[in-house]
Amino acid sequence: MNRKVSKAIFPVAGLGTRFLPATKSVPKEIMTLVDRPLIQYAIDEARAAGIEDFIFVTSRGKSALEDYFDVSPDLEAALESSGKTELLETLRNTNMESGTIAYLRQHKALGLGHAVSCARKLIGDEPFAVILPDDVIAAEKPCLQQMVEAYQETGGAMVATMEVLPTQTSSYGILDIASQDGPIVSVNGLVEKPALGAAPSNLAVIGRYILTPQVLDNLDNIGRGAGGEIQLTDAISAEVAAGRNVFGYRFDGQRYDCGSKAGFLQATVAFALARAELHDEFAAFLADMHAVKQAAQ
Ligand code: G1P
To answer: What spacing in Å lies between the alpha carbon of 295 and ligand 1's midpoint?
Structure first.
């Protein structure tokens, strides 16, 4: 079985209602952590993992995303003539080569599984990655790269996983654990957003996947699941039922849920502190804020 993972799907069709009114005109994937849109973090992670083809499943109102990846000749010329070479380099790193990027529209909001299945024809017969840009993961070795390396040994289907609080399991896909070996978790099944108290573990699916074309076949055959949507989690669980291996991968790194306001703000603080040019000023500001709050108590 071919284990080279060269294609990635980025489901970016969501309405981003949690960030209204901002998302009235700005796709949530363009919202910035410090100075880079969420989607840029996802692309950089994919590139580090060896991804060569980038497939975006979009929806109405997401054209700003396509523009973001286009070249900007006027801006580049202006930076070049004013000698701003560092900025020019930063800008050029966001350009995507023609032919490596495809945009598909999901015409109906039928869920994550449906969004992924929209890319069926572009995937063909090889394993592929899925990256949910809302899940931003800060890691020394990028998360998807960790997974691609593990996948060379395991094959099967693989999802990123981490422990969440028992009170949070109903917000995630949850693993039913068969056995564990270091970071690799072998699973008996997965449940999407189990009711509180009904979760088979507290290991949650985080938005990085390495999947096989069989999962796409499963998506055609499963019905609607949690929330009345076609769930990717159910199609992965169907692999176990068909006798094929599914693994969770406990990645090294810090995950931020940038689909929520609190998570987005936490990521903003963490990424700002991680920037050498911002660290001192921003850390001093946070310390002051903290001191003022303490004094007021
Ligand atoms: C999606 C998946 C879920 C996963 C989560 C990770 O849910 O359906 O299995 O645990 O992403 O962020 P969503 O957050 O889109 O509801």
So the answer is: 40
Is residue 43 within 8 Å of residue 87, measured between CB atoms?
A: no
Q: Which CATH number fits domain 7-259: 3.30.2090.10, 3.40.50.2000, 3.90.550.10, 3.30.70.2750?
A: 3.90.550.10
pLDDT top residue among 2 and 32? 32
- CA-nearest of 139, 117, 82, 134 to 9 is 117
What are the structure tokens assigned to 151, written together?
Answer: 């996948």
Q: Counting atoms of ligand 1 from 1, which one is nearest the CA of 204?
A: 10
Nearest atom (ligand 1) to Cα of 14: 15
Average pLDDT over residues 247-276: 97
Atom 13 in ligand 1: residue holding the nearest Cα: 172
pTM comes to: 0.94
At 102-118, the pLDDT tens digits run 999 999 889 999 999 99
